[in-house]
Amino acid sequence: MLVSAHKQMVLGLLFIVSFFQIAHAQTWNLQQCIDSAEVHNKRLRINSLEMESSLQQERVVEGYRNPKLHLNADYKYFTDLPYQLMPMSVFGGPEGQFKEAQFGVPHHLNADLTLAIPIYNPELYGNIKTTRAATELTRIQNLKSKEEVFFEVSTVYYNAQILAQSLSFIDSNIINAKQLLKNVELLQSQDLLVGTDVNRAHLKLLQLEKERESAAVKYDNVMNILKFLMGKPLAENIEIEKGIDFEKIENYETESSLSVQLAEARNQLLQTQINTLQKTRYLPSLNAFATYGITGYGYDREPNQFLNFYPKGLAGIQLTMPLFNGMVTKRKVISKQLEIDASSLQLELIQDQTNLNIENALKEKDNANRTMELVEEQLKLAELIYDQTILQHEEGIVSLTDVIMAETEVNKAQMEYLATIIEYLKADLKLKKESGNLLKN
Question: Where is the signal peptide (predicted)?
Fold first, then answer.
């Protein structure tokens, strides 16, 4: 008994928790979904890390311009001192004969500070410009990815709203079908209709229920995709605004799309790379250096033990002039120029494609805008005809077939209405993207 009571209590608590989770499901508008995706979407988070990595790489390359200071120290112990050959003529011996001799002490110590200062290095300064161009390219790629995610979130959100509207229509149609079935069964009980009419009404109800089940599955799938794009767990219960509220904007101010900006950034990166190759092909590099330290010599045998230190220092300038490297740089320049030519053509192609997409989106949006009022009027008229047909059927003027046909026309008008809304919203979304206005809030 106690176990049973405990189970009932646990089940009751779970039911209450589930009820409150459902009751307190947050309703998200489109902008809130986009804001959530901007913060939690994993693709955008990866891009942000890549952007930060690119900035750090730029700082690394710029750091090579700074002076470098190194401390060097070493200790050597010679178990056998190196040999040198001494000419015997130095000591009065015959010419052309030598005698080996060991010089030095077994203990050697060195410690010095080395300073290197790059005065001018065309490759270094070219690499700095290249990394800056690469960082700009990464920044635009990051914006492009953000635009794609925002576009996907908006598209999925609109699809979810359309499916929600479709479910609402189907629910209304099911209520009408149930009422129709009830009326038909009543008329049959009064021997005013045959059993076939009841079966038709029942079949229509079953078809609507099946249609609703399919639409509900599609809605759940679309909501899961939306949660994925928002960076939310699939188990989280969220709701969207069911009403489709959109502002009709005739045109947007056309700006450079991110696709065009991305192609321009790639072209600029290639241009900085070829400029660097051209400079390193002819210009010298100049570096200054300086060293200061001490050298120690030690002897550890009795009775002449010692360890003496002696200072040392130098400073200088090093000039490196490229003269000939086997035509390697020239071949690199030719290859890079071909890449630039291809990149320029790619930029023109993207610009033409963008203009084409804008033109098509404007036409699609204009067409949907013009047909919006027409399909709304068609839907109202179909609903009016259906209501009149129901009354005529109750009066025995028309058959059940006429009722079902009228209901079918209502369903068709509803789908056309939703399809027109989808066409308008997607055309507007596409126009925002191609005209460079999608990321503007």
Answer: 1-25
Show the beta-strand stretches assigned E in 197-248.
Answer: 238-240
Structure tokens at 28: 């998200």
Q: Poorest-confidence range of 2-6, 266-270, 317-321?
A: 2-6
Give me the pLDDT at residue 400, please: 75
pLDDT band at 250 (very low <50, low <70, confident <90, very high): low
In the block, tokens 């690199």 appear at 332
User: Which amino acid type is present at position 171?
Assistant: D
List of residues 6+ apart from 20 with CB closer than 8 A = none
Q: Per-residue DSSP letters for 269-304?
A: HHHHHHHHHHHHHH--EEEEEEEEEEEEEEE-STT-
Side-chain half-sphere exposure of 417, counting CA atoms within 13 A: 21
Lowest mean pLDDT among 66-80, 285-299, 398-412: 398-412
Res 228: pLDDT: 96
Flag whether pLDDT at 244 surpasses 80.
Answer: no
Question: Dihedral sign, CA of 130, 134, 140, 141?
Answer: positive
The count of other CB atoms within 10 Å of the CB of residue 81 is 12
Q: Give which of 413, 434, 271 is closest to 340, Cα–Cα.
A: 271
